[in-house]
Specification:
It is a single chain. With about 120 residues, this protein is mostly beta strands. It contains no helices and 11 strands. It starts with a strand and ends with a strand. About 30% of the residues are buried. The mean pLDDT is about 95.
Length: about 120
Amino acid sequence: QVQLVESGGGLVQPGGSLRLSCAASGLTFSRYAMSWYRQVPGKERELVAGVSSAGGSTNYADSVKGRFTISRDNAKNTVTLQMNSLKPEDTAVYYCNAQFAVVNVVNYWGKGTLVTVSS
């Protein structure tokens, strides 16, 4: 059974930092591209950052470039999102995603962790 468990969310003041972690189990982690998405009520889930299976390639939403950093540790089956210079508009539920795409696309999702940026 595949499980993705996010942690590290919480309340932070504007300009502050948070570090989200996602622990994966039940899958061959090193074969999966990993991403962080976020969603606010009434809006579609959006991609925040992604990292390739080996960790050599990353991509970011324009809104977080220069502030967020995604990384992974294939030995520990974890992916992290370091979030700096947080803004109120970063407030959302953040979800961890694992994707494996060969013939078919397989996606797994965590249950999410809430990040609230407010003074």
